Amino acid sequence: MSNQFTRRGALTLPLLTALALSGCVAARPASTTAIDPKNAVVGISMPTKSLERWNRDGSNLNKLLTDAGYRTSLQYADNKPDMQFSQIQNMVNDGVDVLVIAPIDGTMLAPAIEAAKAKNIPVLSYDRLIEGTDGIDYYVSFDNRTVGTFQGKFLVDQLKPNPSSPKNVELFGGSPDDPNAAQFFGGAWDILAEHFESGAFTSPSGKVPKNEDGWKQIGILGWDSAKAQSEMQTRLNSFYADGKKLDAVLSPNDSLALGIEQALEARGFRPGQNWPVVTGQDGDKANVMNMLKDKQAMTVFKDTRELGERAFTMVDQIIKAETVEISKGKEYDNGKKKVPTFLLTPKVVTKDTVKKDLVDTGFYTAEELGA
Ligand code: BGC
Questions:
Q1: Ligand 1 atom closest to Cα of 282?
Q2: What pLDDT is recorded for position 304?
């Protein structure tokens, strides 16, 4: 849509027609700071439709906002940073009133965010932090470092590290362009590093970063299941072909865990016999089903309903010019600004707690899980 602006309540007929036809959003005069709640339009930019969680996040938030009477423009960027950049630029040009953005590459959006700031469009960074710009106003997420800490602690609890009987552990990192991935690995490394140092844990593949910052070398771009599967296959073929025991795999999330589990299955690993402890995050349906089949030991559940509710509340407070509630002392530094943040708490879910945490709370039905 063209970069035309008009006064609220006085939308011209051609503009209204263009909006209706293009699914674009209504305009707001660049100089206006107060948002008219009755006509507010919220732009939502999500990374991709190809991973289960973002579909859920996008549709949840969209529903909450539209149920409250706001108009929205929900866009997915196919995991392509350039596409996300231009989608956001278009939303800014179209004059959305608030932007909610889950970035693909946390460092690449700064110029689009600066454009939003120049038009007084408040920006809420969703789940992942947008870096390198002071144009963002708020951040809402789960405590990402804690996610990794939970995964590391889980492995330690299960494997009971002892240098006189070393355990074989393979490590995976998340997408190198995702700021959350560093947090996940950092949290896990806080717990695991000492056991690699003592020799209680070892990786036959040798894919162990020298320190927390080296995690990108074991990162899987785009959080892609197929890439994780092929990396696991290579490691199994190269380092475990002689029947060496694999005790555990640190997988930072469920999409990677799924690929890893497929590689294990194909290589003849069997639950109850030689299946390693595999970690995950998100509570994706396929992974929960694998948990019920003992192919994945845990997932760190981040209830997207809770995140959606909180993001909705923050947007609603922004639009109504109310005080936006944040978590005290939990600002995240994005390199240019200490961003006021609302932080939610993740939770470990295992086979034993699937019913209580995921079914009884209505996240999945028992039928959906084939249970
Ligand atoms: C999210 C995770 C998700 C991953 C891949 C991360 O930024 O925090 O929940 O598994 O992206 O989509």
A1: 9
A2: 93
